[in-house]
Amino acid sequence: MSFFITEKCIGCTLCKKLCPVGAVEGELKERHRIKERRCVECGVCGRACKQEAIVDSKGNVMKAVPKDQWKKPVIMKDKCSACSMCVWNCTKDALRIAEPAFKGDIRVFAELSDPKKCVGCGICESVCPLHAIHMEVGGQ
Amino acid sequence: MNLPVYIQIDLSTRKIRRFQIDKKMFERFIGGKILAAKLLYDMTRPGIDPLSDEAMIIVNTGPANGTGAPSSSRFNMSFKNLMTGGIASSNCGGNFGMMLKKAGYDGMILTGKADEPSYIEILDGDVHIKNAQHLWGMDTEKVQEEFPAHYGKIVIGPAGEHLVHYAGVLSGERVAGRCGAGAVFGSKNIKAVVAYGTKRPEVYNKEKLDKHVEKWVHFLQSHPMTGTSLPKYGSAGLVTKANATSALPTKNFQRGFYEKAEDISGETLADTKLIRNMGCVSCPIRCERRVKVYDKDVKGPEYETVGLFGANVESADLDIINEINYIADIMGMDTISLGGTIAFAMELKERGIADFGVDFGETGNIPEIVRKIAYREGIYSELANGSKWLAEKYGAEDAAIHAKGLELASYEPRKSVGMGLGYATSNRGGCHLNGGYLALLESVGVLSTDPLETKGKPELTVLMQNAMEAVSGSGFCLFTAYSMIPSILFRLGPSHWITKLCGKVLVWVWPVLGIIWKFMPWILPFNSMFLLPHAEAVKQITGIKMTTGRFMQLGERGYNVERLYNYREGLTANDDSLPGRLTKVPQDKNPKSVVRLDKMLPRYYKVRGWKEDGSPSKTKLWQLKIFS
């Protein structure tokens, strides 16, 4: 299953730029297309598209959401083991393992190092083996 | 049950075949090095040249890869061993295994030879062989920068291109070094394989797996070895322990104690050079060191590199060790075989046999020499062939420290005789890990079974070899198996009477261990966090009814298949040997400080159910259902 781009698309390339897995193809001012095998149905394209040109896998038209309302990962330090699954799976380079608090500190955690880069796809939440990440509006 | 999907690429004809591993095969061989050994045995002809077009290299994953289970990033490569002529398996962390699965495949099989320098791109299940002329010649760091950061990558460096016999393959900064995988890729004209996709690894029971993983991670974090020592000091934390028990190879394995060991210990590294620790993807142990070399933040050395470029060449310069480690990585070489070969070259010079411009105690010129070896420049081309080759040309075979052709790791077996037996019997040659790593129970762990006692060691070696084979085959890092040693013993310390008693018991229960093997699949019909938590994870991931007993038998099956491959290639009991220095010359005044293979091997074969020539018996093959 995959999301789909309708003829409402004006080819603004925003979804292509934001898609965290590179699933959107298309040139400027041309209708874009979503590669079915690549799409992870994160909804980033739908939340960003003001033309309402994105349809989810159930056929519902996605509504645009203002950027400040996009969810961001909140990392629960008591659960995080710094295993880096989230860091390695974040293609936007928004997460990292925090620097040690002091020399020799081995208890480190994942952190949202660059909230501006985060598109709120939630892939980090889905791959965290310890369920130490949940997505929240205004979270970071 | 989701069966593994493999892709077979014939580079000569560019034919690509996708196939699924059948259910019976999957249940018996699971994946990783175990399944790869079986595939290699079935799909290749005996006696092939490891660098010929006909040679096959299998890059595959185990069921755990990519699931998020602790320390499950390790992918495997199996091929015909350049160093030994037998089987080779080499694995490392990095993100390639996870990404290969996300791209849609559990394994990749390469045969043939590309007609021009090429790289393979696997995206969402689609495979393309592309021209890599522009990448050829690049070091492993530069070539990886040519691809998107989030792609899973395996690459070779100049050493692989120049067919250095111990050239490795890198994924990120992690190195699958041993046995010459890099040269096999180089011989096939393949510079890199990259993979990316978004497919999720399918898990039989996600809920139960998640619960198990959560408990397991906490268990690893609370264990003194995986939760404190390894994250703080890395594997180099073993230097002090090995030196204290005279098991730290010094001056090309002439001694086991180095006076300046403290200067190169994991503790000193942590105090003076360490920037921070890091980990492979999915690993909560995080043993990787980060240090500065040429003002860059790079991967620091492991215990083996510290031992072999420190004590074994009589140098206590951590800066040079870090530099050698970095150069070997970017050139794409195994630091164990490289270190062993250079130490042997030093001894050749000391004895006045051959001069490669290397001397004990002088390591300042080694980084440059490492580069020359990678490019096979002048006389250094000879060092690129390894110790066995050098000994065949120049003699001094007693001082060429290898087993079956593969250089020994940084554990001096005369003060860890079980490790000696492991080195000799290891299917891939002188490897501590494939050899069962008995050094952990004899010289570098908290438990100290008598390191000179030969009784009980064959049984313990078989136990450890099988357990580690199964852990590797499933896709886990072997460091997760450290937790098999109860944490209470670490808290009590090595000198406490309970710890000492446990060490003694381990040796003296050998008759019991011998009997246990006869009933293995049935004798441990449960899974436990304290024994091998990997078994429960495999059960929840695959849906196979895995128990600890079956898991151990899986390891035994893998070990036997590898042995069969070796036997078919002409390696017999005669090759289960060590150089004369280790088997004939005691390390110190104690005449027992020598590896008595003559005492241990017959018992080892008996426990294994192998014939006197070192080949698995028909009964054993039938019991393990290898061909039925």
Automatic annotation (TrEMBL), chain A:
It comes from the Bacteria. Keywords: 4Fe-4S, Iron, Iron-sulfur, Metal-binding. Signal peptide: none annotated. Pfam families: Fer4, Fer4_9. Residues 1-29, 30-59, 71-100, 109-138 form the 4Fe-4S ferredoxin-type domain. PANTHER family: ADENYLYLSULFATE REDUCTASE, BETA SUBUNIT (PTHR43687), FERREDOXIN III (PTHR43687:SF1). This is 4Fe-4S dicluster protein. It comes from Faecalicatena orotica.
UniProtKB/TrEMBL annotation, chain B:
It comes from the Bacteria. It holds the Pfam family AFOR_N. Residues 2-199 form the Aldehyde ferredoxin oxidoreductase N-terminal domain. Keywords: 4Fe-4S, Iron, Iron-sulfur, Membrane, Metal-binding, Transmembrane, Transmembrane helix. InterPro entries: Ald_Fedxn_OxRdtase_dom2 (IPR013984), Ald_Fedxn_OxRdtase_N (IPR013983), Ald_Fedxn_OxRdtase_N_sf (IPR036503), OxRdtase_Ald_Fedxn_C (IPR001203), Tungsten_al_ferr_oxy-like_C (IPR036021), W-dependent_AOR (IPR051919). SUPFAM superfamilies: Aldehyde ferredoxin oxidoreductase, C-terminal domains, Aldehyde ferredoxin oxidoreductase, N-terminal domain. GO terms for molecular function: 4 iron, 4 sulfur cluster binding; electron transfer activity; metal ion binding; oxidoreductase activity, acting on the aldehyde or oxo group of donors, iron-sulfur protein as acceptor. The chain crosses the membrane at residues 473-493, 505-524. Its cofactor is [4Fe-4S] cluster. The keyword Metal-binding applies. Belongs to the AOR/FOR family. This is Aldehyde:ferredoxin oxidoreductase. It comes from Faecalicatena orotica.
